Amino acid sequence: MAELPGRAREAGVLRGMLAADGARCVVVTGEPGIGKSRLLAELTTLATGWMVRGARAAEFESHVPFGVFVTALDDLLEPAALAVLGPERLGLLATIFPAIPADGPTDLVDAERYRLHRAVRALLELLAEPSGLVLVLDDLHWADEGSVELLDFLLRHPPHGRVLLALASRPRQTSSRLWHALSRATADGVADLLELAPLNRADADLLLPVQLSRARREEIHLAGAGNPFYLEALVRADANGLPVAVHAVLAAELAALTPQEQLVAHAAAVVGDDFDADSLAEIAALAPESVLTALDRLAERDLVRLDASGRFRYRHPLVRSVAYQDAGPGWRLRAHARAAVALRRRGAPAAEFARHVERSAARGDLDAVAVLGEAAEATMHSTPATAAHFLRAAIRLLPDAESATPQRLLLLGRLAQALGATGDLRQASETMHEVLRLLPVELTAARAQTVRLCATVERLLGRYPEATAMLRTEWRRIADTDAHSAAVLQVALLAGRSVEREREPGREEVAEVIASAREVDDPTLLATALSVATLVDLRADRLDEAAALVDGLPDGDLVRDIDAVFWLGWAEASADRLTAAGRHVGRGLRLARMSGQTHAIAVLTAIRGMVHAYVGELAEAAACFEDGLESAELTGSDELRVMALTFGCWITALRGDPAEAVKLGERAVALDDHAVATNTWRSGQGEAMLANALLHSGDPHGCVDLLLATGGGPDLPAVDPLTRPLTYQLLAEAEVAIGRDATEWADRAENAAAPLDVPLRTAMAQLARAIATLPTDPAAAAPFAVAAADTFTRLGVAVEAGRAHLLAATAFGGSAEIEQARAHFVAARALFTRCDASLFLPQLAREERRMNARRPRRAETFRFDLTAREAEIAALVADGLTNRDIGLRLHLSPKTVEVHLGRIYAKAGVSGRAALAGVWASAQSPRSRT
Known about the structure:
The protein has a five-stranded parallel beta sheet with strand order 2-3-4-1-5, sandwiched between helices. By secondary structure, it is mainly alpha-helical. Helix 16 runs antiparallel to helix 17, helix 26 (523-537) runs antiparallel to helix 27 (543-551) and helix 34 packs antiparallel against helix 35 (685-696). Helix content is 66%, strand content 4%. A hairpin with a 5-residue loop joins strand 7 (304-306) and strand 8 (312-314).
């Protein structure tokens, strides 16, 4: 390829990608000027028949939200053609793309930015129909954080259909987040990496004019080092004096311009990556005709080029960078001020001209502070990293005067929220500590709420002791001066105890916290105290009062302390009140989104997912898992990641993919070991879910080893009490799968469940007993399985009810109670099918086949006109069982068995057990059935 010397292999890769089916990604990396943009331009030429859209990020616009995506796609978007995406997606897309009119505010909040990312993915899939879409994004080392997050999402969840992402970046300048995303995509096979190396001498020589002398050619090769852009820049240099650096070459190009042309070049560098004559006229303070004349001259010298949209841009970002630096710093300051005024006059949103404000405003300029604050609010939920940047700029501009403290506190609080949303929880914590330092000690209520939020962040970081110490210190300071604030902190301390299980609070301590909350006449605080107390000591009788308090509050009151809904929903779910939990969590999510209280959304989503899973709505539960994991990725909290991965391991296994569940569980356990070094509410949960996945993927030994090693031995001291019955149930199931006796684990399951007095845990223990008993005595196992099925059904725990029915069916089948077995098989199949619990359907089919293989053939059953029950008893007599054994197996009294035997003897024409056994054996012979 003559136009791309030395890039034949890379061009071949691009051709292969265009010929492939499905979504693909190519990542082009290399030093500045190495030819990344040229290779991407070649891709657009090769993509015949595809829709091709492209944009490049710009050095001085790195805080324009979703800049490259807006530039690439906005002028293509026709709202009427996008209607198929639906109003919710269109509303989300309107927060990014100016071409899509906003139909009122959206409920987007920063913790759910993945909803926005999913909407963009759906947009790309739509644009790719029917011809395919090539989206070329260049210079991503300068991309804004919103674009980086979106690319990260698209690489983890590629669009369906023919979508080719072509990305280019300088590795040394690329943000760590983007580089990590690109590296992961390359390692996972989602993307192909093209690392461009310098051209060799032969290929580089093709870029040089043929008329150059050998000496001049040698000088250029030595200075250019195989970099195409540098080689061409050096060719442009004056032949009488070779510059010592390429920067000097580019500066020399600008120096050759007239003063007015230089002024326009400087203004163009200030305006943005692309620009028009009108904008330049305002910033350069020149007449439009003069600007157009200067642009003609800049175009003649190939400093700027006119693109297809009718706007100008520099031929290369390096040229713009040199032009910007070439302008004097004082002139740049005034030019940015003129740009801000011009954009504001045109009605541009604050986020668009805030970059000019921050580069031109002086300290103490409160109008500039207001603009930057407005820009931060506009970008808070879609690109919180950009909001954090604007907030930092606003804080820097505040005067040192004490009168600015309230505004400083407000901006710091919003900065902490933005930092938390970006995943920089440590910086968020430091910012909140700065707020506490500035808050006067007499503002006890504000300090109490701030300390409570600080403690929440510390727990998300896994720093439980620090959170407790902070709450206790502030409580001691105000305990005797502000009863309400002291109660707030007391409840927060108890909440911490419900999460951190190092030392369980005593009954008197719990009662004291409830009493303090009751005395201050705050319904939301009292509801929180009652709910948290239930999580501590499992006394569910308090939840009626807590629910009544929450239900009696209007949204406007409840939204002020939405944590009350979270704690109530969690307590109700833990106490098996699933319907109530679902209702309260749904209300909490609605209020959290409406009010932008993003800290509550991830945990509320997790509780909603748990409720969906328990009641058998596994598809909805899986969606909550995906939402929770995306939210955890955005916030950067290992605590939330572990929660989401543990939950996902459980759901993925139930839906029939234990191998993938093992991967999720391994990630959860590894991350949990790294994140937390203390016992918490989730201690043992990740291990239990991973063990369950190992068991169902065919590794019962691994299941047992993991549970005992991480649980601290057979007593499971390292496992949360609520999780122990499930853990013992899994141990019983694994031991049976290995072929060993599981009675000890069933005993331990019952002992662990008894003090909890929680029906769901009691049913788990019953299931463990049925599992342990089934191999040796199916008839004895059946009542335990039936009791568990009844409890699970009463609670609405559908999948576990199906498992209990399956176990009961297996037990009844093994004890020849065929009709009862059949009824339980039907119930189990109906539940598994409705819930999409594919994991258990193969086992159900195997057990049915095994039961049918054990049943007497029809000819045997009715040879002597026996009923089904009589045939079962005859078969057991032939097997040598006594009347008492038969009664235990079939749940009949010995007297009833004796009555049945009398009828059997009469019909078979025999007088005793030995004769009946002989006749029965004869009836089973092949000849007797011919």
